[in-house]
Amino acid sequence: MSRARPSRRKVDPEEMVNEAFLKDPYPFFADPRRNDPVHWNAPTGAWYITRYADVFDLLVDRRLSASAEGETITRTPAEGQVAALVHDFFGRWMVFSDPPHQARVRETLHHVFTSSSMASFQSEVARISADAVAAFRSSGQDLMTDLTIPFAQATVSALLGVASEEFDEVARWSGELMGFLNRSSLEPYDVRSTLQAIQDLTDYVVATVLPRGYGLAVPILQSALRDGGWDPVTVSATFAQLLTGALEPVSNALGIAVTALQRHPDQRRAVREGHVLHTDVVEEAVRFDAPFHFAARRAVADITVGGATIHRGDRVMLVLASANRDEHRFVAADSFDVRRGPVRHVSFGRGGHYCLGSFLARQEMAVLLSELDRQWPELQVNLARTGRSPAFGATQLRPAPILA
Ligand code: HEM
User: Fold this and answer.
1) What pTM value is reported for the model?
2) Would you list the DSSP string of 1-57?
3) Lowest mean pLDDT across 186-190, 231-235, 265-269, 325-329
């Protein structure tokens, strides 16, 4: 689309694609949030909505669609065909689709995530946490590699019926899918490896996971395929969304929580002494550093926000990570503070796409943090060697070695 965009303030258009942004977007959102809160960014071809009030409202605005249309720059027509198959797969994910498809899938999966179902899963999560921390305590060297990632993997394995010896391969497919999603869509992208991962994952789900019947969510997926009119690709796409949704955000948010507490010894002491709940640490960790930075949408009607007109067809990024740092909504928004009390952050979204796994994510994280305090209260991570990997739209922590 070649329509000229209004720009009330000059924002360096390269900002959102350079290395510094990919490693830490927060400083880049601070200025648009104050001066250009509905910001058109030409290089990424999208509007960025950075204020809490706007993000909060637009998350439930039906003039924005979550439906993902194909947007991959390919070099040949053959690659274009591969890209179409890849986009078809992602278009079946709840988070990238609208009702009725999204509502149908969500309604089916809802039974997995009810509070009674989650309550029965809690003992499993507690056992996994205890084992994960014990193994980390005895031979772990790195917070991410040896604790938060294997913990998130073990939990999602129990949810999706993945056997431990299968996990390396499943994690590789998940990494391929996340690599595709976490690119900025500005560069040509070789989608062949993404399609291969999709095909391998679909074969694995249909031929191995479903017949085995093990895993909290598996009977529901099984009956959706058998009696619910779902085809194998929709089952595999749903499996993939649960897999990716449950791995990286949980392990990264745990890494954020542990390192942030270590940076604030007074807060860490308050948690350890029981003055602050682990559930409050979880809320503050995901507010402070939202694992997913954007809720991506497309306008299906013209929308006026903050004096700017978003036209039908335009891409819109609701910047959850920026909304959570809005100084008009949160006192000392850039500070990590587990004592700030109930906060209505938007890290799990809002409305029809509100994170289906939020209860599980919160439960998992609180249980692991409390187990860590119980088994290894004096744990010290080498903060000088921690940091983020470059990623568009997500927080990804590098390995975080512990101090011997
Ligand atoms: C800290 C961990 C997590 C964070 C921060 C997170 C964040 C989010 C966000 C922001 C959305 C909405 C996106 C949008 O509106 O476009 C979402 C949707 C979703 N999440 Fe999570 N998530 C987490 C963990 C999980 C877990 C553990 C699962 C499942 C096991 C899960 C499953 C889902 C699903 C299925 C959706 C799509 C819901 C829909 O579109 O109807 N998430 N998540």
Assistant:
1) 0.93
2) -------SS---TTGGGSHHHHH--HHHHHHHHHH-SEEEETTTTEEEE--HHHHHH
3) 186-190
Q: Which helix (H) or strand (E) holds 78?
A: helix 77-90
Contact 58, 51 (CB under 8 A): no
Backbone phi and psi for residue 347, each to the nearest 5 degrees, phi listed first? -65, -25
Q: Which amino acid belongs to residue 18?
A: N
Element (H, E) at 234: helix 232-263
pLDDT value of residue 185: 59
Start-to-end CA span in the chain (Å): 56
The reply to whether ligand 1 has any atom less than 6 angstroms from the CB of 350 is no
The two three-digit tokens of residue 165, written as one number: 């010896």
Q: Give the chain's largest Cα–Cα span.
A: 62
Distance CA 386, CA 38 (A): 33
CATH number for the domain whose boundaries are 15-385? 1.10.630.10
Q: Is the CB of 348 under 6 A from ligand 1?
A: yes
Q: Does residue 366 have its Cβ closer than 6 Å to ligand 1?
A: no
Sheet holding 315-319, edge to edge: 38-41, 46-49, 315-319, 294-299, 64-65
Contact 346, 105 (CB under 8 A): no
Please tell me whether the peptide bond between 100 and the residue prior to it is cis, using omega within 30 degrees of 0. yes
- Rounded to the nearest whole angstrom, what is the distance from the C-alpha of residue 269 to the centroid of ligand 1? 31
Whether residue 197 is predicted with pLDDT greater than 80 in this model: the reply is yes
Rounded Cα gap, residues 95 and 89, in angstroms: 12
The per-residue pLDDT for range 327-362, each reduced to its tens digit, is: 999 999 999 999 998 889 999 999 999 999 999 999
The structural domains of the chain, with segments of one domain joined by +, span 15-385
- pLDDT per residue over 86-99, tens digit each? 999 999 999 999 99
**Sign of torsion over alpha carbons 191, 192, 196, 197:** negative
- Cα 290 to the center of its chain, rounded Å: 8
- Cβ(177) – ligand 1 distance below 6 Å: no
Confidence of residue 390 (pLDDT cuts 50, 70, 90): confident
